[in-house]
Design goal:
233 residues; 3-stranded antiparallel beta sheet; 9 helices; 9 strands; 31% helix; binds ligand BV8
């Protein structure tokens, strides 16, 4: 990590997107052959879609849960876990991804702003529990018994998780890095501007240029499994 820009124990805030899990075989969303080219986002990733057809939505997430379970963390996940363990300053890892590959690479604290495939949520009492491999509309909540269980995922139109905590980290970040994200989904896409306004050094690591690339002071293009270990080294 080129030290010039910040102190040895700087506070690092890192945001990851689907690109960091692409080389683990988990499709991204907006690239060629991406998830949103195969599925209609409004049908499978909105509360309205779930109300209309919960079986369709559970089927979509059951398939993604199975894919994620069969996948393995890659060199980018491992490099970030090593950075969290060894960097003298604070490292905050925020992910838009709903897979658990960061944790399986050894990252102990990961803020899942869009939820997780491994979690189930009761829409009635907000109880949370580990998701079974296959979820179905007839599943009942172990706490209140209601038949209102859903994947613990933040859908479009819903408020992302832990936003206050994240706002605090963006205000105090000395380095903000975005890795493998197209910067098209808000509020996450706006984090770079918030961090830059507070004086953070901003770094983009991505396969190629994105509309938000001009917001970053430092840009590193290449596959995450090469570019992230290089940046961390
Ligand atoms: C599409 C977009 C225009 N719509 C939105 O942003 C909406 C609406 C909206 C709100 N504010 C706005 C302002 C302007 C315009 C629109 C809005 N946002 C919302 O609805 C959000 C909720 C959004 C969350 C939706 N849920 C997801 N995921 C869970 C589901 C699921 O996963 O099924 S978002 C979904 O997209 C996220 C972003 O996608 P990326 O990760 O960036 O993936 P993508 O495919 O796009 O890009 C991949 C990148 O990787 C790169 N890459 C590929 N391979 C590699 C490689 N090998 N190495 C490195 N890089 C690589 C590619 O080049 C590319 O750049 C994903 O992470 C994924 O989580 N809620 C909200 O705003 O509530 C109110 C609010 C807000 C704040 C405070 C209070 C209230």
């Amino acid at each position: 990590m080129t030290r010039g820009h910040f102190p040895r124990d700087a506070k690092l805030v890192i945001l990851t997107g689907a690109g960091v899990s692409a080389e683990s075989g988990l499709g991204t969303f907006r690239d060629k052959g991406g998830v949103w080219t195969k599925y209609d986002l409004a049908e499978v990733a909105t509360p309205e879609g779930f109300a209309r057809d919960p079986a369709l939505v559970h089927g979509f997430y059951n398939a993604r849960r199975a894919n994620a379970a069969d996948a393995a963390p890659n060199a980018a996940h491992h490099a970030l876990a090593k950075l969290q363990a060894q960097w003298p300053g604070e490292v905050v890892l925020i992910t838009q991804n709903v897979d658990d590959l960061h944790e399986r690479a050894g990252s102990d604290e990961v803020i899942h702003i869009h939820g997780t495939l491994t979690g189930a949520l009761c829409a009635a009492c907000e109880h949370r529990w580990p998701a079974p491999a296959q979820m179905a509309p007839t599943d009942t909540c172990p706490a209140c018994g209601a038949e209102t269980t859903r994947p613990d995922i933040v859908w479009f139109g819903e408020i992302p998780y832990r936003m206050e905590e994240i706002a605090g980290h963006l205000d105090t970040a000395e380095v903000f890095a975005a890795i493998g994200t197209s910067g098209q989904v808000y509020p996450a896409a706006g984090f770079v501007e918030e961090a830059a306004q507070m004086g953070a050094h901003t770094v983009e690591i991505n396969l190629s240029e994105e509309p938000t690339s001009p917001f970053f002071q430092e840009r590193r293009f290449g596959p995450a499994t090469a570019a992230v270990p290089e940046w961390v080294a």
